[in-house]
Amino acid sequence: MIGFAILAFFQLVGWLIQRLTGLPLPANVIGLLLFIAALFLKWVPLHKVEETASFLLKYMSLFFVPVIVGSLAFFPYLREHWFVITGSGVISLLLPLLVTGWLVQSRIQARNNRQQKENAHVHRS
Amino acid sequence: MSIAADPLFGIAVTVIVYALFLWLQSRMSWVQPLLMTSAVIMLMLVILRIPVEDYQKGGSWLSFLLGPATIALGVPIYKNAEQIRRSWRPILGGITVGACCGLLSAGLIVLWMGGTRDMAWTLMPKSATTPISMEVSRLYGGYPELTAVLTVLTGLAGSIIGPPLLRLCGVTDETAIGVAIGTTSHGIGTARVLKDSEWMGAVSGFSMGLTGIWVSMLALPLHLLGL
């Protein structure tokens, strides 16, 4: 229960900050950033929140059900615009997927090659 | 007043149907509890002529929990930070480029195909994890409910075609696959790669959290630039 209280506390603080400052970030993201900071600063011990967090993350998809059911109202909109939505949806999934994959792999390979060369150099000298 | 107007109805029906599909998923791995539960409830509401507003009296109790669940994303980020630190440059670079690329391509393609700005903002945040994508959509004039559905569909598609497509295109490094999946397919993709390896799941979980933060931050300058 203390874990849930801690998470709710950061959610509340994020919401308050968003309300008071008008910061253009989702209130939950402000709460998340503060929570991460609190974990790194050891203000919140990991073991106090770990159990609640893993429960919430494990069953997170349950909390989306009402949201998706709410999309019933958008069926006429979807029927009208499905072509644009599908087109943009598919391309904007595949493009970043491949770009990110290639980029990270090439950077890691470049770094490994560099390290190998350095190691070889150390061995020779 | 119909019995469905009591909050108990929405909560109980959702939890029961969801638990049923979770159980089915443990026997048949292709079962998708989220999509199937939503579909069953939608059908039920339509067939029994129950107004969506009545269902939402209970439903909103459940969707409220998305708040604490978003904060909880901090835990996997914190736990994997030490391991991630060893190759932080490629990982951070990949997430940043991937998040930008996803936001921009989604928005520009919608506008290029003749869509409206509200449609662009409905699609743009969809590579972030759902509670964040919904909020970004709401903040900049998209339709949050539609963003939620599209986010889930994106995650589902990415988790199915992502890993084989990446390998087909020559991406075999586990870290690279983890970052690519986490950046585009959030939690659903993360759950998928976690089945293959613990490390890929950790990298993907980290990428998903950071993508959520990046997307919500990058959205503002794009909005100011007139998108």
From TrEMBL, chain A:
A Gene Ontology term for the protein's cellular component: plasma membrane
Annotated keywords: Cell membrane, Membrane, Transmembrane, Transmembrane helix
Residue stretches spanning the membrane: 29-44, 56-75, 81-104
InterPro entries: LrgA/CidA
Membrane topology: Multi-pass membrane protein
Location within or outside the cell: Cell membrane
Signal sequence region: none
Listed name of the protein: CidA/LrgA family protein
From TrEMBL, chain B:
Gene Ontology CC: membrane
Pfam families: LrgB
InterPro entries recorded: CidB/LrgB
Cell compartment(s), UniProt: Membrane
Keywords: Membrane, Transmembrane, Transmembrane helix
Ranges annotated as spanning the membrane: 6-24, 31-52, 58-78, 90-114, 199-225
Signal sequence interval, chain numbering: none
UniProt membrane topology term: Multi-pass membrane protein
PANTHER family assigned: PLASTIDAL GLYCOLATE_GLYCERATE TRANSLOCATOR 1, CHLOROPLASTIC, PUTATIVE SEROTONIN TRANSPORTER
Name of the molecule in the record: LrgB family protein
Source species of the chain: Paenibacillus dendrobii
